[in-house]
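Handout, page 2. Input:
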Amino acid sequence: MIFSRNFAAALLPAIAGILLSGLALAQTPSDAPAIEGYSPVSYFTEGRPEKGSKEYAARYNDRTYWLTDASQKALFEADPEAYAPIFPNHCPFNLALGRRASIDPTNFKIAGDTLLMFHRSEEMDGLERWNEHGDEEELMERAESQWTLFEF
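Output:
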């Protein structure tokens, strides 16, 4: 029994290191545009996703966002928190379930004043499942708590 406890105590830091390095690899490189180059402002002003341009890039929270034109860039820079997605790399429905899944920037919802982007694949549509759940407040709380763990 003592051997098992010592072995587990020695193994836990190694496992934690592997998990943390995997999380680091899953994050978007700082030179790649956030949300696959889509302009976060367009979701609010146009009601749809639009590809931005490197020419109108703006930084926020260690991510580079591409905007469509100078007026969008000015809007974003004046209040980036109002436009940037709350979970820029992860589907909030999957976060609420305690797992990571990439986003499809064309699969989105504006909940109140928050931009949410969801996973979409043949197996699952995160937005559809989010809407089916019915309790958006509960899902947001769960997603936010998991987001903190994943971003650590």
